[in-house]
Amino acid sequence: MAFGASPPNPDSPKPMFMAPEPEPEPEPKRTKRSEEIKDNEVDENQFFLQKIQELVNQKMMAFCSQSSSSSSNHDQEPKVVAINDAKPAKKPSKECQLSRSRSRSRSPTDDADYDDREIKKQKKAKKMIPNKMYVRSPAVNNETTEGLKKFVTEELNGSDMKLVIQKTLYASDLAKNQNRLNMPINQLENPKFLTDDEKELLDRDGSSIEVPLFGPTLKLHEKPMTLAKWHMKTTSNYILKTHWNHFVEANLEVLTVNTMVQVWSFRRDEKLCLSLICVGRAD
Q1: I want to staple 163 with a disulfide (CB 3.0 to 4.6 A). Which of 72, 189, 221, 240 is the partner?
Q2: Are 264 and 142 in contact (CB under 8 A)?
Q3: Which has the higher per-residue pLDDT, 102 or 179?
């Protein structure tokens, strides 16, 4: 024991066992195979990044192409990353732009279902409306009409005078290829100028009645007229025909387009007679 050293204490704890520090693990050896795998992973990442960049560039070119159509400067190219394999987006054609504008301005009436519904409504409304009403102008009563009444009653001994119709002469009434005076039933002043037997006769297809006709000068026309009834889709018309062209030629000075005429009926010995007089101008 060295001099001055304290003797060991038998009761002091003995030192614990200390484990040796672990040695650092050696780095794995880089083999040729591991280096190839790592290089492949790098190449794969670069490949996907390149593809993503190409898609971004294509989207940018398509967007710039559409926006450039409304720009005043058409000469400038959109600044994008040049990609050899990428193709610039085509400018929308005029037909495509027109189609888009039509779709934006589409109205409800362009819809087929809407049109069908409107057509059905119109047809239903037409069924509910009666035949087109004719607004009659007031019957003219002047010296001409008074002279006719006096002539029929005093000189012809006629009776039962009735105003059949007051109408304006149209070009079709005076056309030679028509050869008839049209008297629509819905425009008659007095539909009861015919007897029941005469009405029944004219309702038969192809039937007619021969009637004498006095002209604007109160002179009996040399050739009698034929009164017939034509049935149309929505109405019926009484027609003076057969020698109508001859009657017009005999009164060319007064029977012109837009002349307002009156047709009167009367009876002589119960036989139907007609008279046509001019009472004014429609224009």
Answers
A1: 189
A2: no
A3: 179
